[in-house]
Every structure is written in structure tokens, then in C-alpha cells.
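User: Sequence in, structure out. Go.
Assistant: Echoing your sequence, followed by the C-alpha cells.
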Amino acid sequence: MNKEEAVRNFEKIHSIKEQIDMEKDINDCCYILSQNPINMFQVKQKIYAINEKHPENLIFYNLILYNLIYTPKEKTVQLNDASDANLIEDLKWKLNFLQAKKSGKTFDEFCKTMREIMQGN
């Protein structure tokens, strides 16, 4: 195996690991949100975990959605000071974000594989 093949294999393995990780986070979010009553400690823990693993969700939310699409109606609050309703909405946002990100990565991998196939012929 040459260096180029090793890099390609590493990228594929890394991509698969990311996909599995995102799927686990998506499943965790769905499970947490389906509970009655919703365990707010689990909601906070999942929000912290997703923010750590996927910091781009905060950038996207803060810069694009919050500032450009929606006019701020109130000041933002720290996670520890957020109401239960705000925390649940934040977790729903993260669930939607991860679903979109996973779909995008899947499509990107498909396109990359198709390019490799076409270049091989």
C-alpha cells in the first residue's frame, strides 16, 4: 500500500466514524426528546457534548440564523441560565443540524466515490 492509498483509506475510515458518531448523537437526541417527562439533565449534557464535538453548529446558529434570518427579540442566555423550553428548542435545533450535516456528508462521500470511479475509467 502506498502513501496515497493509505491516506484514502484513513479518510474513508474517519468519514465512517464521523457518520456513526453523528448517527449515535441523532439517536440520543431522539430518545431524550421522546421521554415523558423529558430529563433536563440529559438535555443539558447532550447539548454540551454536541457543542464540543460539533462547534460549527454554534457558529451557524449565531451568525446566520440568529443574526441574519431572525431579529433577536431578547438577549441570548448562557446554557446554565436557559429555561427548560429554551433547552429543549436548542436540542431540537442540534438534532436538525446533525441530520442535515449527516445527509450532506453522505452525499459528499457519494460524489467523491463517483469521481474516483469516473477517473479510474
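User: And one key feature?
Assistant: Residues 32 and 38 are 7 Å apart (CA to CA).
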